[in-house]
Design goal:
By secondary structure, the chain is α+β, with helices and mostly antiparallel strands. The chain contains eight helices and nine strands. Strand 1, helix 3 and strand 2 form a beta-alpha-beta unit. Helix 1 crosses helix 3, helix 2 runs parallel beside helix 3 and helix 5 runs antiparallel to helix 6. The protein starts with a helix and ends in an 8-residue tail after the last helix.
């Protein structure tokens, strides 16, 4: 696996900026790969369940190779800096929970505030590099509580047939349609609820 700072730089390109959450996500990915004894997933060999949707998620995706698009990542909105990783070939599952005090071991509030509010991107990256070096060097068990857990084996991602909603005409994954009054409808048309409004 690449060194910690190289992974952080890769995550910054994906995420758009550097921040503590991104460092935590990259660090969590590194710890998961260490504990599972594997490298980044190229396909669905690793499956993860994340428990929040913070900046950390982007760092974790870049580091581990789990993504929503590949179907090997799912989200439980628990608001916890925690994730569970399932290694298919060994039927092995571990759960990691971040120890917030670990970040305090490598950075004081003033250094972090300076790094966060630095406007020059190059200086900001340099300040975070110092923090990241110390954070990356901490042993995994000082940064995360880990436990071996069991989950139901996640299904492999499937390519599902799309059909036209009989109301709006938009192509919709067949498994995400509902039958209402004898018509096969997308969820917004069937429920009358949508996240956007047509102008």
């Amino acid at each position: 696996m690449a060194d910690f700072w190289s992974l952080v730089e890769e995550a910054v390109k994906f995420h758009g900026h550097i921040c503590p959450g991104l460092l935590i996500g990259v660090r969590m990915g590194v710890a998961a790969m260490n504990l599972l004894g594997v490298d980044r997933a190229s396909d669905e060999e690793i499956y993860a369940v994340v428990e929040n949707d913070s900046c950390a998620l982007d760092g974790l995706q870049v580091t581990t190779g789990v993504t929503f698009g590949k179907g090997n990542l799912s989200f439980k909105d628990y608001g916890k800096m925690a994730a569970t990783f399932y290694l298919r070939r060994r039927n092995m599952t571990i759960r990691l929970v971040f120890k917030p005090e670990s970040f305090g071991k490598v950075v004081n509030g003033e250094d972090l505030s300076e790094a966060m509010h630095e406007e020059n991107p190059e200086i900001k990256m340099a300040k975070f590099a110092t923090i990241a070096k110390r954070f990356g060097d901490l042993p995994d068990d000082e940064v995360f509580d880990s436990s071996v857990v069991d989950i139901d084996e996640p299904p492999m991602a499937e390519i599902r047939k799309s059909i036209k909603c009989e109301k709006c005409g938009e192509m919709t994954m067949e498994t995400k349609t509902l039958v209402k009054n004898g018509k096969r409808l997308c969820i917004p048309c069937a429920t009358g609820k949508n996240y956007y409004r047509v102008r």
